[in-house]
Amino acid sequence: MLEFYAQRGPKLMLDETSVFDIGACFVHGVDIAPGPAVPDDGDARIRHSVQGFLFTCGPDHIRHPEPIKGQNDEKYPLHGSFSASPAHVTLFELGDQMSQAEAEVLVTLAAGGRALLKRRWVIDGDSGVVALSDELSNIGAAPFAPMWMYHMNIGAKHFDEKVKLSGAMFEPSEMDWTFGAGDGHVFCVPAGKGQARLSLGPMAAVKNTTLHVGFDTAELPYLQMWRNQKRPAHVLGIEPVSHDWKSRGELAEDGAMGQLQPGEMRRYGLQFSFS
């Protein structure tokens, strides 16, 4: 892991062994990533990734395993093929006013073919805002349907009853972090048009800090939310996502499984900060 920080903002641990995702995320000296307080679906790649503050799902699948068309009993892996793909770091610079890090990640897709991710992290040392910019290219010989989700995980042990979720995409626009019933719940809603924004906080255990997240809905038109408090899990997830919470078959029927042709590229990204 590489320590990544600037004059203001969080200290992030960037994971070179898995897509240059974020492991620990220290805010006022407190790691708000869930660590081992996460569910285990039996996939060692995801068990590693889901413990961190952010991991990337895709680029060929984003949710639970589904059959690969025309390949007998083969299935897309849990959350796609990205996790456990090593990153080749091409730039790493720390500075008070700005820190930046870049990496390239090659991934072999579950159904065949290859994709290249060019990833760039920036922390603005004046505002403390962290920005992630991604470019996904199809470097294989056949098209594939790109699917993408940023899986942001926060350890819910830091929450009390005053912690709220707020954003224009929610109904109501402010709600308790314990949405739904029982030990867990998942929902997925349209994120709106343009730049989507949401907040989670204040977290009294982290000096009354609030997390703010923003993302462009052009390629990430939905927001999925989940929480799991079934022991040993104690986690809440914020997930900007490319597709509605439906099966691949339903999405195909809706015309939502567009193809990325060989040589083509798509851009994704998000920003987050703490106040």
The CATH topology is Beta-galactosidase, Chain A, domain 5
Q: What's the number of helices? A: 2
> In the CATH hierarchy, what is the architecture at level 2?
Distorted Sandwich
Shape: globular
E-strand count: 18
Estimate percent helicity.
Answer: under 10%
Low-confidence stretches: none
Distance between the termini: 25 Å
Order of helices and strands: EEEEHEEEEEEEEEEEEEHE
Overall description:
The model has no long low-confidence stretch (mean pLDDT 97). The protein is mainly beta. It has helices spanning 44-49, 248-253; strands at residues 2-4, 11-15, 21-27, 30-31, 54-57, 88-93, 98-108, 114-124, 130-138, 149-155, 164-167, 174-176, 184-190, 195-203, 209-216, 222-228, 235-241, 265-274. The chain contains 2 helices and 18 strands. The protein has a single domain (2-274), classed as Beta-galactosidase, Chain A, domain 5 (Distorted Sandwich). It starts with a strand and ends with a strand. The longest helix has 6 residues, at 44-49. The protein has a 9-stranded antiparallel sheet with strand order 6-7-8-9-18-15-14-11-12, with no helix packed on it.
